[in-house]
Amino acid sequence: QVQLVESGGGLVQPGGSLRLSCAASRSIYSIDTMGWYRQAAGKQRELVAASTRGDTTNYADSVKGRFTISRDSVRNTVSLQMNSLKPEDTAVYYCNIYLLNGQKYWGQGTQVTVSS
User: Fold this and answer.
1) Rounded distance, CA 37 to CA 94, Å?
2) Computed from CA positions of residues 40, 95, 47, 17, in that sequence, does the dihedral angle turn out positive or negative?
């Protein structure tokens, strides 16, 4: 079973930056999409950013221009650089990997809190 381990969450002031990282516990083959989702208290989980097999990136409108996703398909890692953080970015962030066969893996989540 593959485990996805996230790191880099924490407390930051508005306008600050954080970098989230996610690493798989073993090699994964036939990866389609690697991405990040988030779930704020009382809300549904939503896509934040995704990087496809064809190197296409997608971002939620609310984070465009502030967040940057990067992936390393050889090392099976994906990162999310978050700049100009806002209180509304506060959520639990989840790493996600989709395989070409439809199988998917989720990380355990890491808390990001943006507050003064």
Assistant:
1) 5
2) positive
